[in-house]
Specification:
By secondary structure, the protein is an alpha/beta fold. The chain is built from 16 helices and 15 strands. The strands form three sheets. Strands 5, 6, 7, 8, 9, 10, 11, 12, 13, 14 and 15 form an eleven-stranded mixed sheet that branches. The chain is globular. Pfam families: LCM. Residues 42-93 are annotated as: Disordered.
Length: 511
Amino acid sequence: MSSHQSPIKATAHDAILSKLSAYQLGYYDDPFLPYMATNASGLTSSTSSNGRPIRVFERRDSPQVNSVPSRSSSGNRTNNIHIPPSPPIATSPRLSNQFEVESFRPYINSERRMSSPHIPPRQQDIIHPHPFSNPVMPKRLCSTKRQLHPAPHIQSQMAQKSQAGEMHQPVIRRGTHARVCVMDYAITTFLSLCKDANEVQVVILGSGRDTSYLRSQCNLLHDKTQQEGKCNRIKGNVRWYEVDHPSMIQEKHDLLLSCDLFDFNYQKVMNGIKDESYIISPKNIRTTSKKDEENVAMQGDDSHDTGFALEPYHLIGYDLRNAFDLLLKNMRENHSFSLETPTLFVMECVQMYLPDADSRRMLETITAQCHHGFMAIFDPIIQHDQFGQVMAQNLTKAKIADKSMSLLNTRTLKEQVDKLKSCGFDHVTGCDFYSAYEMLLTMEDRRRANQAEMLDEVEEWMLIMRHYCFLVASCKKNSDEKNSDSIEEAYCSVIQNNPFGFVASKCLQSE
């Protein structure tokens, strides 16, 4: 991996560690995160061989425990790969990864402000469906019996949460949760709008250790289109693609091989001389370990839980700084990709690492070649204030950004919207991420976040959120087709009762 890619890979690891922390505290359900966070080593945090998250400047060797055998290409279990124990202690995702936030504010350990008396949580207080006890409960005082010293099992929980608190702050986990919810809604809204299509495609660019595919097969994506608990789409008609640097794809493939929840066959495809890609044929997916006697497997061919065959999955190694048309050509030739099929491209903090010229060529290629192209983007907008200047200085110092990067060339929401419009997208809608939180997250999303932990630094969190943005865009190649633009318009609509829940006064649309 080049010197340019190393810090980018580290920030990707910080992202998965952040998500793991949010998951552990009960923000949302993702049983695949402990596997995907194995041996992650970010700029500010890491998981050691025994799964314990540690600050980078505190990193030290740990004894190897809780190992899970991996599989060779033949499918047999072989060498040991270490998986974080249950529950693994860690940090929160990519919204503002821990490095980016620490680059412009002092690190605050809010857990150290906990009052000393604690009591065990009452069973009726733990109401969210999460395997770990509510982290807020041990902070409460009993009105009739006060304990000066917590019970042993509470002491253990407090020690674990203190370690997690030292890794990521509530502002990071709260932003991470919002980011996961909104990007999930970008995917599930697209799938719902395309429910009458014979097939659709989802392409996650710069995917890192993303778990969207795995969660989608288990009905764990946040989905506002669900009706009476049932997903409002035809399942089994989606092809999923993840594209990232070849070293990241190899890493992701190895992690999937070690994942006890996912059984699959795979075919290796060579893209050129060195780049490896994989065609994954899923056999079954579980949400709990095979060791769990109550586990219900979701079978690839006969699933009584989902009622559909597990959807195909492709891991594609490619450097996004290279010509995007070559990537699409490879996907068509080796991975059953179709330019005529409605396709959603997802990018989370990806453009910021690309030269602006390369980013624009990529977007222009999508609008020129894809007949029904959709885009969902989460990106920083550093703007022109002091907050953004400090953020840019620290990212530049870490050799993540320079003057050619999109991060420094599209500083505002308007510049992001104009960029998409100039690259050929017919419809573009964007908002800062605090507005996205207010508009798009449901009451249940907020309730679960509030129940997971308290947020004291509200003003700081709002400031961070306003320096990120969420954008959706769509384009159509054959505009003369009858009703060809109905789905494209609906995806970016801000009219009343639109699929996302956009509010016109809080959004910016292309002219």
